[in-house]
Amino acid sequence: MGSNVGTALGVMGIIIGAGAIGFAFFVWNGQNTTNSDLKSD
Fold first, then answer.
1. How many structural domains comprise the chain?
2. For labeling, which of 1, 11, 30, 36 is most exposed (least CB within 10 Å)?
3. How much of the chain exceeds pLDDT 70, in percent?
4. What span, in angstroms and rounded, lies between the C-alpha atoms of 35 and 22?
5. What stretches pass through the bilayer (predicted)?
6. CA angle, 26 as apex, 33 and 32 as ends, to 5°?
7. What Cα–Cα distance (Å) separates residue 14 from each residue in 9, 21, 24, 37, 40?
């Protein structure tokens, strides 16, 4: 059981980590786009 729990936590950690990186990347790009629009105006 311990091995299964470790694997589940490992998979969840990878998914959460990837989601956090993707979200941060999306927000970072959104801010850059907003800044570009403000500078253009």
1. 1
2. 1
3. 73
4. 20
5. 6-28
6. 20
7. 9, 10, 15, 34, 39
Looking at residues 24-40, what average pLDDT do you find? 74
The two three-digit tokens of residue 31, written as one number: 């801010």
Compute the average pLDDT of residues 4-17.
Answer: 95
Instruction: Give me 38's structure tokens.
Output: 């403000």
Tell me the C-alpha distance between 6 and 1, whole Å. Answer: 9
How would you write 1-41 as a 3-class SS string? CHHHHHHHHHHHHHHHHHHHHHHHHHHHHHHHHHHHHHHHC
Tokens 């490992």 appear where?
Answer: 10
Q: Is the pTM of the predicted complex or chain greater than 0.70?
A: no
